[in-house]
């Protein structure tokens, strides 16, 4: 449980981000450190002015998937952003923006939601990853 | 077991994974070692999740029961 869980987030759809948030929260609840690395469309979803917006679902969800996801949210499920906030409250969760993706999207850290702790490159991410698994979502 | 002194109550009824465990982990930090927390949940997955969390973190699951749709767990902070 001491090795960090390292998640690289690439996809910016609400379903994949929720899946990532749940994996993060579960690990954090077990005392396992989690390092997140936000790239491309996942990084875009963490923009302060967009984090609460509808980011859509993966194409495989279809209409049935959309209805299922909406049903769960209506029943009170927390958003992925709120799930990440709850996970961070437990400690051990670090969320970093990929510096290349920051350039790609012309972003400054001040454009990002406070959930994002900083900006780093892939080398720093690997250093912090240690012997832990790296998962790509 | 006789009357138990609960130091912190967690109402996770209606919450789905991972929130029952997240709330449990948050709550255990608010009590002193040896003290008890009580968790109520309706998510059926919480039964295995709470057991797994208890085993992994070393916070003992001292009591577990179900009343209709509500699961009740009592855990002791290690």
Notable traits:
heterodimer, A: about 140 residues, alpha/beta, Hypothetical Protein Ychn, Chain: A, globular, B: about 80 residues, alpha+beta, four-stranded mixed sheet
Largest interface: A-B, 18 and 14 residues
Helix content of chain A: 40-55%
- Could you name the CATH homologous superfamily of chain B? TusA-like domain
Shape category of chain A? globular
**pLDDT under 50 segments of chain A (min length 5)?**
none
Residue fraction in strands of chain B = 35-45%
Q: What is the rounded distance between the termini of chain B? A: 19 Å
Largest sheet of chain A: 5 strands, parallel
What shape does the CA trace of chain B take? globular
Give the overall average pLDDT of chain A.
Answer: 97
* Main structural class of chain A: alpha/beta
Rounded Rg of chain A? 15 Å
Specify the CATH class of chain B.
Alpha Beta
CATH architecture of chain B: 2-Layer Sandwich
Alpha-beta classification of chain B: alpha+beta
The CA-CA distance between the termini of chain A, in Å, is 21 Å
Query: Which consecutive residue ranges of chain B, at least 5 long each, have pLDDT under 50?
Result: none
User: What order do the helices and strands of chain A follow?
Assistant: EHEHHHEHEHE
CATH architecture of chain A: 3-Layer(aba) Sandwich
What percent strand of chain A?
15-25%
């Amino acid at each position: 449980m001491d090795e960090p869980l390292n998640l690289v987030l690439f996809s910016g759809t609400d379903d994949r981000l929720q899946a990532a948030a749940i994996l993060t929260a579960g690990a954090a609840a077990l005392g396992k450190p989690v390092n997140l690395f936000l790239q491309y469309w996942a990084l875009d979803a963490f923009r302060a002015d967009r984090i609460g917006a509808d980011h859509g679902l993966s194409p495989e969800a279809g209409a049935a998937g959309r209805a299922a996801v909406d049903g769960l949210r209506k029943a009170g499920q927390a958003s992925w952003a709120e799930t990440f906030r709850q996970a961070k409250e437990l400690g051990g969760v670090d969320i970093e923006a990929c510096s290349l993706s920051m350039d790609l999207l012309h972003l400054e850290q001040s454009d990002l939601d406070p959930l994002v702790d900083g900006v780093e490159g892939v080398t720093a991410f690997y250093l912090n990853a240690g012997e832990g698994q790296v998962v790509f979502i | 077991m006789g009357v138990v002194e609960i130091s912190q109550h967690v109402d996770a009824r209606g919450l789905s994974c991972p929130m029952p465990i997240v709330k449990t982990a948050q709550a255990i930090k608010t009590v002193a070692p040896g003290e008890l927390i009580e968790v109520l949940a309706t998510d059926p997955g919480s039964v295995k999740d709470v057991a797994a969390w208890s085993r992994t973190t070393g916070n003992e699951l001292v009591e577990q029961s179900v009343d209709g749709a509500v699961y009740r767990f009592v855990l002791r902070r290690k």
